[in-house]
Design brief:
The protein is mostly helical and 66 residues long. It contains 3 helices and no strands.
Length: 66
């Protein structure tokens, strides 16, 4: 069974639903370049916050991009 996950492809795009967040991708290039920076970002923005915080972040980022 499929369930809906609004914004689930963020920061990438979902054709016909929302555009790619290019500003995030530009930042991500620097974040993902070095393992220690990546791990610190993951800890701060994913592991310590949980999915609800990401959903809120994605909503704000999408709204700012519109």
């Amino acid at each position: 069974m499929w369930s809906r996950c609004p914004g689930g492809a963020f920061p990438s795009y979902a054709q016909g639903y929302y555009a790619r967040n290019n500003a995030f991708y530009k930042k991500w290039d620097d974040i993902a370049r070095e393992r220690d920076i990546f791990l610190a970002w993951m800890k701060t923005n994913v592991l310590e916050k949980g999915p609800e915080a990401f959903a809120q972040y994605a909503r704000k980022a999408r709204a700012a991009a519109e």
